[in-house]
Amino acid sequence: MIQAIFSHFLLSGSHYTTANYVRENWNWNPNPSAIKKILQNTVYIGNYHNIENYCKSIIDKKIYDQAQDIFANKRTIKSAPTNRVYIFSRLLKCADCGQAMAGTYQTHRRIEYYYYRCELYSRRRACTHSKRINEKVLENILLESLESYIDQYLMEYHAKIAAPNPLKNERAKLTKKLEKLKDLYLNDLISMDEYRLDYNRYMEKLNQIQVVDSPKPNIATLEKFQAESFRTAYLQANREQRRSMWRNLIRAIFITSDNRIERISFA
Asked: For the chain, how far is it from start to end, CA to CA, in angstroms?
């Protein structure tokens, strides 16, 4: 059961929905604080009162750390000044200009409908992305197609990793040359002046090569993703919990000017 609690929490990002999950699947009626204590208890990774390897662990340290990261991130999430929770706040990006898409709402017959629109267009009309996207429509698209988006993302990620990187290769070659140069000098095969001359030449080339690594997604979590379990937990969650679930899974969603999902970057 403990392993299932951690797995469900990583999936849902909420100890409230995890408590509901336990009630439905085991003969136990825990409150959310009891679930939180379990998720933060180091005994499950074999530590007790700061004594490491005190007992056999039943939860992998990486999984435990991911759970703690979720709790840490929750403390940084603030509600909007209006106390309205926009499920996709800070996640949507305009594919045309790269700016964030801000949440807005409209009331019809006492029901609030939530939308998102490019901030650059809203504030200065400096982007052509004038359409707003309906939150419920986007929510349904993601719930129905999330698994295929993840599969596509993983395929592209692995292809990118496998592809040769000329800049990285060039940096590696220069680094090896620097090591050989050092060996030549230490073995008195070249003079200090020769060493300095070649060293400065190699370092100048090395500094000109800028290799920027993209943020690495949590591949293990994505590969184990189960759409049906996510959907079940999601439908039980309130708006704030749903926002946490998306933020734990997704880094950014890029929306085109005709309100299509151009691409998704996963956390």
From this structure: 26
Spatial CA neighbour of 206 closest among 178, 253, 165, 174: 174
DSSP lists the bridge partners of residue 118 as 101
What is the DSSP pairing of strand 250-255 with strand 92-94?
Answer: parallel
Question: Given the structure tokens 């998720």, which residue do they identify?
Answer: 39
DSSP structural state of residue 198: H
List, for residues 153-170, the tens digit of each pLDDT value. Answer: 888 888 877 777 788 788
> Does one domain contain both 132 and 29?
no
Residues 79 and 85: their CA atoms lie apart, in Å, by: 6
Domain of 223? 92-159+215-266
Confidence band, pLDDT 50/70/90 cuts, at residue 71: confident
What CA–CA distance (Å, rounded) separates 8 from 237?
13
Record the tokens describing residue 8, joined without a space.
């469900």
Overall pTM > 0.90 = no
Q: Does residue 122 sit in the same domain as residue 219?
A: yes
